[in-house]
Design brief:
Helix 2 runs antiparallel to helix 3. This protein is an all-alpha fold. The chain is flat, with a radius of gyration of 30 Å. The chain has three domains: 67 residues, no CATH class; 57 residues, no CATH class; 96 residues, Serine Threonine Protein Phosphatase 5, Tetratricopeptide repeat.
Length: 234
């Protein structure tokens, strides 16, 4: 009987406590309702402004930039020096990659223009500028981004900077592109060989065999697998 009374008492106390909490919340709301409504309205205004900005400005800029970049891409594919310079700087009527990268910064195309500007500088033999723009390329387009990391790895390799070369190749091989990824894996394996890390070299070569068997055969990677295994067993 005593237990029943205690249980009933606890329920009453809990009910009173809940009522007190509700009362406090209502009192707080009544006291600060103007501020609360103001905050809610302010948040809604900000959200609506962001949506309007994206719809009426960002999307428009995206469309403009996407149209603008077609001509410099065409010049880039032509490959001669005059065309490559126009791809970077434009021709007075059409923007080049540099203007698109700087003039449409809020767009995805601006990011892509950084990548193509880096490739263009590379074709012109201006490797410092190429590195600068390739590093500006953010990870928004996976296939291009992984290819970009491999290209940066190549530049560091040419500079004799093995540590940074390996770091960028390791980023590049996380992609699944059937062309770029096996090449990056092979280069990574070669870098590990130079450092005498035959186990990691073997892992890179065997990943090509497992995930990109056609390229594995085309690139004659089997001989490198055997060489790595032989060095591991020494």
């Amino acid at each position: 009987m005593a237990n029943t009374e205690n249980l009933g008492s606890k329920k009453v106390e809990q009910t009173q406590e809940n009522e007190n909490i509700v009362t406090k919340i209502l009192a707080f709301f009544n006291k600060y309702q103007n501020i609360i409504y103001g905050v809610i309205i302010g948040v809604l205004v900000i959200v609506l402004a962001i949506l309007a900005f994206n719809r009426f400005y960002v999307q428009k800029k995206n469309a403009e930039a996407a149209a603008q970049i077609q001509q410099p891409i065409h010049w880039l594919t032509q490959g001669d020096t005059a065309s490559l310079k126009k791809a970077l700087e434009g021709d007075g009527e059409n923007d080049g990659f540099l203007d698109i990268a700087s003039g449409y910064k809020i767009t995805k195309t601006s990011n892509t223009a950084n990548y193509y500007a880096g490739l263009t500088y590379l074709k012109l033999g201006q490797k410092d500028e190429a590195m600068e723009y390739l590093k500006k390329f953010k990870k928004k387009e996976d296939i291009l981004w992984y290819a970009c990391q491999a290209t940066i790895g190549d530049l560091y390799d040419e500079q004799g900077d093995e540590s940074n070369a390996i770091s960028y190749y390791e980023k590049a091989v996380k992609g699944k592109d059937p062309f770029f990824t096996p090449i990056a894996l092979f280069k990574l394996g070669q870098m590990y060989e130079r450092k005498g890390d035959w186990k990691k070299a073997l892992d890179a070569y065997e990943t090509i065999e497992k995930d990109f068997y056609t390229e594995y055969n085309k690139m004659s990677v089997a001989q490198y697998v055997e060489r790595a295994k032989a060095n591991i067993s020494k």
